[in-house]
Amino acid sequence: MSDSLTSIVVLTKDRLDLTKRCVESVIRNTDIPFEWIFIDNGSKDDTIEYLQTVQNAIVIQNSENKGFAAGCNQGIVAASGKYIVLLNNDTVVTPGWLSKLHMWLKRVPSIGIVGPVSNFVAPIQRVDDAVYQSLEELDAYAEKRSLLFKEKGFYPHRLTGLCMLFPVELVNRIGGMDERFFPGNYEDDDFCIRARISGYTLWVAQDVFIHHEGHGTFGGRDITYKLSSLKNADKFRQKWSVGRSAFEIDQCGYNPSDIVTREVHFIPARHVEKL
After folding, report:
1. Which of 68-84 are b and which e, b meaning 16 or more Cβ less than 10 Å from the residue's Cβ?
2. Where does the Glycosyltransferase 2-like domain start and stop, copy by copy (predicted)?
């Protein structure tokens, strides 16, 4: 395991156009050592052929859609870096994104997971006044925002899985993504809650902005996103209500801190999801 290497784990399922755009943005805007770990969940287009042309990349090809959590776990197991980034293939990163995220992990030892702000994400990380009109204007907007919010951020109650940086040691302690949340939704909530229960904090880096298209990692229209969310909300509710008072997820969502406060002690037999 390299102490200076970050493994960027990207899941794909069709939408080669989005994947190419994401890969090109990372290559263009990343200034520290990294490797690629691509997990393809059964693409029918030319995604695999393209991924095999990307330098310094491991490509894992699944014959069927194993879901977001299982794919991420495959990538984490294959990674050689001391740090992992889970990055959606429908994102476009901006100059210095990764080094700025790393800065927060180095500065505040209690931080277990750090994420950026974006245009299309849960409200806690959303920038509602993103003023770029096209991707050609994105880098300039992001750099201006980075200066305005230089070294600023805050502790959120959860992070969204479109882009999360964390050390491998976090996974060694709390386990990987919970694969019951197939094909996707709530696995990132669950991961963040386990990190917090185990004593880590979360961080939103306000000086890192990335563009997010939205739902591209799920393979376009192959999966009904809303139906997946509803089913996994019920699984999530059942998991975190076992042996405890039940909680509800209403139209306003839920408060992750209620769960963290209730789960006073980190219990590996209950909380850790083995890879």
Report:
1. bbbbbbbbbebbebebb
2. 7-115
Distance between CA atoms of residues 238 and 87, nearest Å: 28
Per the structure, the complete domain to which residue 143 belongs is given by 2-263
On whether residue 270 sits in a domain, the answer given is: no
- For residue 58, pLDDT over 70 is answered with yes
Asked whether 95 and 25 are in contact (CB, 8 A), the reply is no
Q: Quick check: 219 and 41 in contact, CB under 8 A?
A: yes
How many domains are there within the chain? Answer: 1
275: tokens are 């890879």
CB 100 within 8 Å of CB 149: no
pLDDT digits (tens, 9 = 90+) for 203-225: 999 999 999 998 655 544 445 66
What percent of the chain is predicted at pLDDT more than 70?
A: 91
pTM over 0.85: yes
Residue 167 belongs to a domain: yes
